[in-house]
């Protein structure tokens, strides 16, 4: 029983966690780069004010540079907010694998499959329309089982 559990966990985590961890790492790197650029823009904006005050830049040059920096900074704020939301969602998804495994652990020794246990595991079942003509005696029909916390397992 323990070998089956370990095989199931490795199958489940290899698909979900491996892919999610790569995506999380890429998004964290992108978020760090965006935050670094935002700090860089803050410095550039401060530098344009100094150059305006010392007379190095004209009013027109200042407006042009400052406008570009401020526009980029606003776009970065939105991008950073989006990345942080996506990171939180992906972290929740990674945590949900652990929640599903907790249900699996509670029901390792099940003598009988009851409706309550089934409801704990299965969120919903989608039955697709059957393939082929309706006059055929044998046909295939696709059924998707969506589990709680992890979705479908291929």
Automatic annotation (TrEMBL):
Entry keyword Coiled coil: yes
A Pfam family annotated for this UniProt entry: DUF4368
Keywords: Coiled coil
Coiled coil: 14-51
Domain DUF4368: 89-154
Domain of life: Bacteria
Name recorded for this polypeptide: DUF4368 domain-containing protein
């Amino acid at each position: 029983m323990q070998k089956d559990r370990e095989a199931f966990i490795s199958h489940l985590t290899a698909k979900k966690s491996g892919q999610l961890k790569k995506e999380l790492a890429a998004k964290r790197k992108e978020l760090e780069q965006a935050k670094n650029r935002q700090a860089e823009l803050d410095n550039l904006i401060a530098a344009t004010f100094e150059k305006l005050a010392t007379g190095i830049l004209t009013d027109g040059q200042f407006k042009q540079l400052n406008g570009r920096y401020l526009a980029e900074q606003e776009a970065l704020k939105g991008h950073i907010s989006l990345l942080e939301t996506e990171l939180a969602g992906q972290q929740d998804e990674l945590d949900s694998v652990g929640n599903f495994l907790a249900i699996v652990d509670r029901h390792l020794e099940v003598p009988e499959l009851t409706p309550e246990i089934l409801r704990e595991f299965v969120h919903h079942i989608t039955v697709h329309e059957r393939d082929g003509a309706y006059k055929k005696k044998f046909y295939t029909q696709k059924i998707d089982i969506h589990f709680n916390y992890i979705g479908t397992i291929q």
